[in-house]
Write a structure and sequence with these properties.
The chain is α+β, with helices and mostly antiparallel strands and 687 residues long. It has three domains: 22-135, no CATH class; 184-465, Carbon-nitrogen hydrolase (Nitrilase/N-carbamoyl-D-aminoacid amidohydrolase), CATH 3.60.110; 492-679, Nucleoside Triphosphate Pyrophosphohydrolase (Alpha-Beta Complex). 27% of the residues lie in helices and 20% in strands. Strands 21, 22, 23, 24, 25, 26, 27 and 28 form an eight-stranded mixed sheet that branches. The longest helix has 20 residues, at 64-83. The N and C termini lie far apart (110 Å).
Length: 687
């Protein structure tokens, strides 16, 4: 750089010298590492070099000889790190070892060693990295600043293999396991990492966690909206606040009764005073640990702005969680709010690595916002919504699930929307869940009618269900579920079938086969009496599953460690998939185990009979589209049993029954059962 001011002008150095050469960068890095005592700052310096020279890292990362050389060069530093006491600061021997390792050797670029050193410091000083971020809370990073990454192992809280492991570049060199450098996305939103709930949120997600969404409203008539939808709508609020509050209280009670520890209300279903009153739920010993109390319209700030704000309450924390909507609706409702010019995305950090974020409806249709949440490591996203359809959200939420193994719950309201132009009624999904174990990472939850109700998702099993509210104003009480009918005396054909099974295959009923290369499993072949012969219960598999998508199969699955026999496996799986009460069936016996050619299970069919199967639980719509009872001797005939079917039962019309095909194993088992029944056909008297 030169500045000409006249004859004899001399070059002028820039005010801040830039480090152009690799040698200058390395010299600067070694000096910083030698003097820096904070592990977080040291990791940041090392990652900056990795980002600047990522092309060199890409070239060397896949070379096994270079990886071996780096392991050898970093070994002395690792010895010092493992022998040092657990101090919050890097002591002088550790700093000297780090700086001394940053040299070129045996064809290994210093940046490759810097990357290995960053990983080492991240591994051995993790607690100090967390403490360093904690001290800076509320922490707002700029481009190039370090940000914390959550690291809960989702596999420890779910009973399935993640269908979409976290997407990472083959070699991403601007992050370690617990730290990432902020990119340009940090300029799009005011991202704030908040550690005020660090202890209160610990353990917020476990194997027992159930997330519930509440849906209090039937249609748009429940809200005060302008007659002309083109007019601005502010504030949007319930036309009958007292009744609205009663329904919401009932639904939260239902959610708690269902075991939910995280509850989400929809957008604009409460007023500000009502939202604050709902804090009493997290103060109760039998209440949820975390409640997102929907959102409300209000005017606040300086200058005064019309806002749409969601608030949340956490047990053990006196303050409130807040999020201001930054993407107002324009259609079908013109939401007249004035969001901030630089919107804020606040990430609440828990001690065990969960990064909680709140979003309101169309905030999750903003691709920049979703990308920012993903880069910031948001892995528990709760979203109140008020939308005529949730399908456009599925891709965005699937991105959060796939990139960070996030759990997402969106509560939508109301149940019916009327198109202002043609007056057609739309029935949107009531909820949308994201879960790493779902086949497409997301699942929409519809309801059979427009009644208020709750949707639930069990984190451990991805079991998703819907329950409509009753006509009263109080939640159901434990023990109020009707008792299933006692099994009647077995009909003659069922007794004959049981005798045959006991004579031929009694030994197989005592235990599951020892697993070799195949995982033991069992299916339940549940028979009932029909007008022209036995009916069999079949499930229609969800279309996005890996095994038997869209096929008719028996309920069943793999053996769990707690299962004691094929019978216990089959009954447990049937209860989880269809809501069947095992007490309402009579086990007849088992058939020989057979290999499922598609899923690679060793499957034991368990035969059972029931006068009237009882389904008190929900159907797991993550796996099962619906449950059917069909004639055993003529699958596809237009017959239907009038028994107590689960809520997700299909009507046997020709369009539905003509499409699904039987699974291979299902067809084989049906053939065997029919062959056995030929010897003792129903209705034939014993001689």
């Amino acid at each position: 750089m030169t500045t000409e001011t006249g004859p004899g002008a001399v070059p002028c150095s820039p005010c801040v010298a830039r480090l152009h050469s690799p040698e200058e960068r390395l010299h600067y890095l070694r000096a910083r590492v030698l003097e820096e005592t904070d592990p977080l700052v040291t990791v940041t310096h090392l990652l900056h070099l990795c980002r600047d020279e990522h092309r060199v890292l890409w070239a060397q990362a896949a070379d096994p000889d270079i990886r071996a050389a780096v392991t050898s060069l970093v070994a002395p530093v690792r010895v010092i790190a493992e022998s040092a006491a657990a101090h919050a600061e890097l002591d002088e021997p550790m700093r000297a070892a780090l700086a001394g390792a940053l040299v070129a050797a045996d064809g290994v670029a210093p940046v490759t060693i810097a990357h290995a050193l960053a990983l080492l410091v991240d591994e051995h000083y993790r607690e100090h990295l967390v403490a360093s971020f904690h001290r800076r809370s509320p922490y707002q990073p700029a481009v190039g600043d370090p940000i914390p990454l959550g690291a809960p192992d989702i596999r420890s809280v779910m009973d399935m293999r993640p269908t979409a492991p976290p997407w990472r570049l083959a070699n991403r060199f601007d992050e370690t396991r617990h730290v990432r450098l902020a990119g340009e996305w940090a300029t799009q939103f005011r991202v704030v990492f908040d550690y005020s709930l660090f202890g209160a949120l610990q353990g917020i997600v476990t194997k027992d966690t159930i997330i519930a969404t509440c849906h209090p409203n039937r249609g748009l008539d429940d809200f005060g909206l302008p007659a002309d939808p083109a007019l601005a709508a502010f504030p949007i609020q319930a036309t009958d606040p007292r009744r609205q509050h009663q329904v919401i209280e009932q639904l939260i009670g239902m959610a708690v009764h269902a075991g939910a520890s995280i509850v989400v209300l929809p957008e604009l279903c409460v007023s500000e005073p009502q939202a604050r009153t709902l804090q009493q739920w997290v103060r109760r010993d039998d209440g949820p640990r975390l409640l997102i109390a929907g959102s409300y319209h209000h005017v606040s700030g300086s200058p005064r702005r019309r806002r749409n704000t969601a608030i949340g309450w956490v047990r053990g924390y006196p303050g409130q969680l807040t999020h201001d909507k930054h993407s107002p609706a324009e259609y079908p409702i013109n939401e007249d709010i004035q969001p901030e010019g630089w919107p804020e995305l606040r990430i609440y950090i828990s001690a065990d690595g969960w990064h909680l974020a709140i979003a309101i409806c169309r905030d999750l249709l903003n691709p920049q916002a979703v990308h920012t949440l993903s880069e910031a490591g948001a892995n528990l996203v709760l979203a109140p919504a008020m939308s005529e359809r949730l399908t456009p959200f599925t891709g965005q939420i699937a991105h959060l699930v796939g990139s960070g193994q996030a759990l997402v719950a969106m509560a939508n309201n109301p149940a019916d929307w009327i198109d202002a132009h043609n007056h057609d009624v739309h029935h949107p999904a009531r909820a949308l869940f994201g879960h790493p174990g779902l086949g497409q990472q997301t699942r929409l939850v519809a309801s059979p009618n427009s009644e208020p109700g709750i949707a639930t998702m069990h984190v451990h099993s991805a079991l998703i269900g819907w329950a409509s509210a009753d006509d009263g104003t109080s939640p159901p009480h434990r023990g109020s579920t009707p008792q299933p009918p006692s099994p009647n005396v077995l009909p003659q054909w069922a007794q004959s079938l049981a005798t045959t099974l006991q004579r031929r295959y009694q030994a197989l009923a005592q235990h599951l086969p020892d697993p070799l290369r195949l995982r033991p499993a069992a299916v339940l072949v549940l028979l009932t009496d029909g007008p022209t012969g036995p009916l069999v219960a079949l499930t229609e598999r969800a279309s996005d599953l890996t095994d038997y998508p869209g096929r008719l199969t028996f309920p069943g699955g793999g053996q769990d460690p707690a299962d004691t026999s094929a019978v216990s496996t089959a009954l447990r799986e049937a209860a989880e998939e269809t809501g069947l009460d095992p007490a309402s069936v009579h086990v007849l016996g088992v058939l020989p185990s057979m290999t499922d050619p598609e899923s690679k299970f060793l499957v034991t069919p368990v035969l059972a009979w029931s006068a009237k199967p009882h389904y008190p639980g929900p159907v797991n719509v993550a796996e099962v589209s619906c449950v059917r009872q069909l004639p055993l001797s003529g699958i596809g005939a237009r017959q239907n049993d009038d028994g107590d079917l689960p809520a997700a039962s299909c009507l046997p019309d020709s369009a539905q029954l003509g499409q699904p095909r039987l699974g291979v194993l299902t067809a084989a088992v049906i053939d065997i059962v029919l062959a056995l029944l030929d010897r003792h056909p129903p209705g034939r008297a014993e001689k």
